[in-house]
Recover the amino acids of this structure.
């Protein structure tokens, strides 16, 4: 089996800006190990197609991680980020995660 890669799951964080508003930044939710793959089409059920059609990548996390939502994003080791379009817990049994992602660019680029 191929070795997994490290990914950081980030959640949005609102920080007061001192003048009555806030700045939205990202904070670490959890570091996970997984496999990232490019998605170029799908034959999934039509219920999921609305979420997966806009996805560019799929992240498989072999060890199930609870609490991942579509408001979060994923960072890879090269500093690229991906918005989570659909966090899936296949069959609802907590075996592994499948995260459908949309490529967002480089964090500092």
């Amino acid at each position: 089996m191929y070795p997994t890669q490290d990914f950081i799951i980030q959640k949005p964080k609102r920080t007061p800006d001192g003048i009555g508003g806030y700045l939205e930044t990202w904070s670490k939710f959890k570091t996970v190990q997984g496999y990232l793959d490019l998605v170029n089409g799908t034959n999934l059920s039509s219920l999921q197609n609305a979420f997966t059609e806009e996805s560019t990548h799929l992240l498989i996390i072999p060890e199930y991680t609870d609490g991942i939502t579509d408001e979060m994003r994923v960072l890879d080791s090269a500093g690229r980020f991906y918005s989570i379009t659909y966090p899936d817990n296949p069959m609802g049994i907590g075996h592994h995660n499948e995260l459908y992602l949309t490529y967002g660019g480089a964090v500092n680029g």
Summary: The longest strand covers residues 22-38. The domain at 5-106 is CATH 2.40.10.270 (Thrombin, subunit H). The mean pLDDT is 88.
